[in-house]
Amino acid sequence: MNFASQDERKAANGNYFTLPNVVFHLGLTTGELATYAYLLRCENRKNYQCRPSYKKIGEAIGKTKNAVKTYVDGLRDKGLIKTEPTTKTAKDGTVLNGNLLYTILPIENAIREYNERQIYLSEIESRRQVIRRRSPEYGGTINAG
Fold first, then answer.
1. Contact 140, 133 (CB under 8 A)
2. What is the pTM of this model?
């Protein structure tokens, strides 16, 4: 038997894409993760862009168009993708909305944004704890000075 290595199989058919390991540590929902993986699958490796419709993404990941819109918004908010509206022209000359143009951003941006968000949330929680300690409602005392 001839067993080809994983690298040889990848090179032979080219039907692979990489998903950065760190993506599992960015607080993505399962829907966002599936959407991100699909966008990576579709992206042009030269310009990091693709333009699948919400419907096409939804069919691929088993979700509705409305759910996909929510996932795309989450990915954009987390710094993983950038979206741009596009237009298309109908046969009668009417200009219509096209699919979004997705640009996959460098993962370092998302890591930085995630870390900044975690620091911010930690600071907020720290302030809440100070307020709780000082609040009579929680058995603390309020310093009047």
1. yes
2. 0.74
